[in-house]
Automatic annotation (TrEMBL):
<dbReference type="InterPro" id="IPR029061">
    <property type="entry name" value="THDP-binding"/>
</dbReference>
<dbReference type="GO" id="GO:0050660">
    <property type="term" value="F:flavin adenine dinucleotide binding"/>
</dbReference>
<dbReference type="GO" id="GO:0030976">
    <property type="term" value="F:thiamine pyrophosphate binding"/>
</dbReference>
<protein>
    <recommendedName>
        <fullName>2-hydroxyacyl-CoA lyase 2</fullName>
    </recommendedName>
</protein>
<dbReference type="InterPro" id="IPR000399">
    <property type="entry name" value="TPP-bd_CS"/>
</dbReference>
<dbReference type="GO" id="GO:0003984">
    <property type="term" value="F:acetolactate synthase activity"/>
</dbReference>
<feature type="domain" description="Thiamine pyrophosphate enzyme central">
    <location>
        <begin position="200"/>
        <end position="331"/>
    </location>
</feature>
<dbReference type="InterPro" id="IPR029035">
    <property type="entry name" value="DHS-like_NAD/FAD-binding_dom"/>
</dbReference>
<dbReference type="Pfam" id="PF02775">
    <property type="entry name" value="TPP_enzyme_C"/>
</dbReference>
<dbReference type="InterPro" id="IPR011766">
    <property type="entry name" value="TPP_enzyme_TPP-bd"/>
</dbReference>
<keyword id="KW-0786">Thiamine pyrophosphate</keyword>
<dbReference type="Pfam" id="PF00205">
    <property type="entry name" value="TPP_enzyme_M"/>
</dbReference>
<dbReference type="InterPro" id="IPR045229">
    <property type="entry name" value="TPP_enz"/>
</dbReference>
<keyword id="KW-0479">Metal-binding</keyword>
<feature type="domain" description="Thiamine pyrophosphate enzyme N-terminal TPP-binding">
    <location>
        <begin position="7"/>
        <end position="94"/>
    </location>
</feature>
<comment type="similarity">
    <text>Belongs to the TPP enzyme family.</text>
</comment>
<dbReference type="GO" id="GO:0005948">
    <property type="term" value="C:acetolactate synthase complex"/>
</dbReference>
Length: 567
């Protein structure tokens, strides 16, 4: 049912809404997800019916687990043809209902506006998430077109045929009755859970007596109504050493005295008070197993399920607040100010201890930077260090991969808030090009860099055709070790076999070049300075000529991430 998608696109274009068409529906939804995160509002994707809808399942589930307010609009067979064997006619809503906060099928034209208003509000209220609306072809066409294409029986001689024609006519009449009677188009209010004063007082009492407090921030901390600039000020005012995860990466810039990047497990063990500000006790925090029984844990989350994940099994809380993270931290800051909380000064000794451990860890990393892989290819830490030095500080970084991207998370530092996009808790490979498209749509003048593993690059490299067609210059840098290395790290030692782990040192940059991008291939024993200069030169040319760029770098095997897999 390509006509559904075409009608939506044409009408949107006439209204001045920019349309970006992708090579695969999964990337359209990934792009909408990125738009929602970066705009702190909704992102919208429209797909054709049947296989177009089923192609979105992975990206829709990713949006759900990332708590992203994505609006998915889909076509469907004409309502009169439902269940009669029409092209791509399947029962779509049951397939994706479990992934959406709200689903609806438009039956009558008058339902379009109120359904959209409700869907947009629901997607952003409480814990945000995706919604789905199905548009049968005949509710997108004009009354005259629907009458023309209706299955009226010519010359109906029998009462049965006459009754059939009458039922068709009545159906069409109901579809268009009161179709243009709406006068209210303004958005419905969004419900945001707010903290109460008693809860704020309770956590302020706990924090006031802390000697070694720790703030663990997750993606929810970046949700509206607070702007990220306000959140930065709040965190600085609290003065608590902070670890950033998910969409909160980059929140404090590249060189904040409060931000810690290394030794999180040790810090969690040593802390006497931990604030989970949207952070969740799932595999990323070893399910809460690492918390000391003496540590007072405060969990703040819009979702009760996420707030209490593994609670009472692996960890216990001193306080929980089901409310918006930013608003809760704002009220906590206000109370701590009234109590003359010392902030940075009170935590200075604790911060210095963590910083000393941080320096030692980075010294160990520097030693690994000097190591030369046995296979003769580039040390991935050399490449990542050069990337960190050459990528503009206002660039948006898209993380799409396993082992290589896991290393990048330690080395390549986002320069500010909302400048790091990764899939989130679902760990989805293939988000790269879709996320980059969304980022470029929101910030067309900023550099967008996809950090690819060679495995993940295979999912979305074809979308560089989309970047070229829409004149959206995106940079893709592939760390190519010819392997699904994150899997191989565990599989080979356990089973003494690399079956289904090995790839080839494929020239991905040549494939991208055929799509119209610039390209660069790097290999061999290069130092950081050489790689930095090579990247700087080709990225400058890419910017000047407003062309996309794919850099393919053959990297060697190292032990930097040994034992790092989390499940």
């Amino acid at each position: 049912m390509e006509e559904n998608w075409l009608l939506l696109s044409l009408n949107s274009e006439q209204l001045g809404i920019k349309i970006y068409d992708t090579r695969h529906e999964v990337n359209a939804v990934f792009a909408a997800d990125a738009v929602a995160r970066l705009r702190q509002h909704i992102g919208v994707a429209a797909v054709t019916s049947g296989p177009g809808v089923t192609n979105t399942i992975t990206s829709l589930k990713n949006a759900q687990l990332a708590e992203s307010p994505v609006i998915l609009l889909a076509g469907a067979a004409p309502s009169l043809m439902k269940g009669k064997g029409a092209l791509q006619d399947i029962d779509q809503i049951p397939i994706i209902q479990s992934m959406c906060k709200f689903t609806a099928r438009i039956i009558n034209v008058e339902d379009i506006v109120p359904t959209l208003r409700e869907a947009i509000s629901v997607s952003q209220s409480g814990t945000p998430g995706p919604v789905f609306i199905e548009f049968p072809l005949d509710v997108l066409q004009s009354y005259q077109e629907v009458l023309r294409d209706a299955s009226f029986i010519k010359n109906p001689e029998t009462p049965e045929k006459q009754n059939f024609n009458e039922s068709v006519y009545q159906h069409i009449y109901r579809q268009f009755h009161n179709a243009w009677s709406h006068e209210e188009f303004a958005p419905l209010p969004v419900t945001i859970p707010k903290p109460n004063i008693e809860d704020i007082t309770k956590i302020a009492d706990i924090l006031e007596n802390a000697k070694r407090p720790l703030l663990l921030m997750g993606s929810q901390s970046t949700l509206p109504p607070l702007k990220t600039e306000q959140l930065v000020q709040i965190v600085n005012n609290l003065g608590i050493p902070t670890y950033l995860g998910g969409m909160s990466r980059g929140l404090l810039g590249a060189n904040s005295p409060l931000q810690m990047r290394q030794n999180r497990k040790i810090a969690i063990k040593e802390a006497d008070v931990i604030l989970l500000a949207g952070a969740v006790c799932d595999f990323r925090l070893t399910y809460g197993k690492g918390f000391s029984p003496e540590t007072k844990v405060i969990s703040i989350n819009r979702s009760q399920e996420q707030m209490l994940k593994n609670h009472g099994v692996f960890w216990n809380s001193a306080a929980t607040i089901q409310a918006d993270v930013g608003l809760t931290l704002l009220e906590l800051q206000n109370q701590m100010k009234e109590r003359k909380w010392g902030g940075l000064e009170k935590c200075r000794e604790w911060i210095e201890m963590l910083k000393e451990m941080e320096i030692k860890k980075e010294e160990d990393t520097a030693k690994k930077l000097a190591q030369k892989p046995d296979d003769g290819h580039m040390n991935p830490l050399v490449l990542l260090t050069a990337m960190d030095e050459v990528i503009p500080k206002d660039a948006i970084l898209v993380a799409d991969g396993g082992d290589f991207v896991g290393s990048a998370a330690y080395i390549v530092r986002p320069g500010g808030p909302l400048q790091w996009l990764d899939p989130g808790t679902f760990g989805t490979l293939g988000v790269g090009a879709g996320f980059a498209l969304g980022a470029k749509a929101v910030y067309p003048e900023r550099t967008v860099v996809i950090i690819y593993g060679d495995g993940s690059a295979g999912y979305s490299l074809m979308e560089f055709d989309t970047f070229v067609r829409h004149k959206l210059p995106v940079v893709g840098i592939i760390g190519n070790d010819a392997c699904w290395t994150q899997i191989a790290r565990e599989q080979v030692p356990h089973f003494k076999s690399a079956v289904a782990c090995d790839l080839d040192y494929t020239h991905y940059e040549e494939a991208a070049k055929a799509l119209g991008t610039q390209s660069l291939f790097l290999d061999g024993d290069m130092d950081v300075k050489q790689v930095r200069e090579a990247l700087a030169q080709v990225m400058a040319r890419s910017r000047a000529e407003k062309q996309s760029l794919v850099v393919n770098v053959l990297i060697g095997k190292t032990n930097f991430r040994e034992g790092s897999i989390s499940v």
